[in-house]
Design a protein that fits this description.
Layout (H helix, E strand, L loop, with lengths): L2 H22 L7 H5 L11 H22 L6 H24 L3 H25 L1 H5 L2 H20 L3 H9 L5 H13 L4
């Protein structure tokens, strides 16, 4: 299979899996828990995230296609394996952060992605230079995301408790007592 055919598989698959990870985790500004958190001053507008991630997933898909296409290259298998592991960790960030409201785990996952990408770039560079170059914007964004995630953690030390309050289906006691009072006063007929 040629590079264009490989890329026609890897690019849409990478973008689609990233999009599904975010959608299934209710990521973004529509998430009530996320809206309840205090955000750092350097937080980009909400529209910037899908734009950035789409571009980054396209770069990742192209980089992966270049690695797959480099048949016979030394350490190709290791590079592809590391690439897929870091991509799986990437896709697990939204469920951990937005789905489970685990800001600390999200930070650890981004840290792991940064470390794996730092190893992957020179490894990919020995196989296909362009594959490594396509990973540099991703590494930059991961560093920025790490800083954002860290600041969210610092600004919201009780983030998991905020999650309970934002997603709770419990009726507040003051509403319950007002409703009970109204029910008692209401005539039976």
């Amino acid at each position: 299979m040629s590079f264009p055919r490989i890329a026609l598989l890897t690019v849409p698959a990478t973008v689609l899996l990233g999009t599904l990870s975010g959608m299934l985790s209710n990521s973004g500004n529509e998430n009530p828990w996320f809206r309840a958190l205090e955000m750092p001053s350097f937080m980009p507008p909400g529209w910037a995230f899908p734009v950035a991630w789409t571009a980054l997933y396209i770069c990742l898909g192209l980089s992966l296609a270049l690695l797959i296409d480099a048949r016979g290259a030394r350490r190709r298998g290791a590079a592809i394996a590391l690439f897929l592991v870091q991509l799986a960790v990437n896709y697990s960030w939204s469920p951990a952060f937005f789905g489970l409201h685990q800001v600390e785990i999200g930070l650890a996952l981004i840290g792991a992605m940064i470390l794996m990408t730092l190893v992957l770039i020179p490894l990919a560079g020995r196989i296909r230079r362009v594959a490594a170059l396509l990973l540099i914007p991703y590494l930059g964004w991961l560093c920025f995301a790490f800083a954002l995630n860290y600041q969210v953690m610092v600004l919201n030390p009780d983030a998991s408790e905020v999650a309970s309050a934002a997603s709770s289906t419990d009726i507040p006691l003051d509403q319950l007592s007002r409703g009970a009072t109204r029910a008692v006063r209401k005539p039976l007929l």
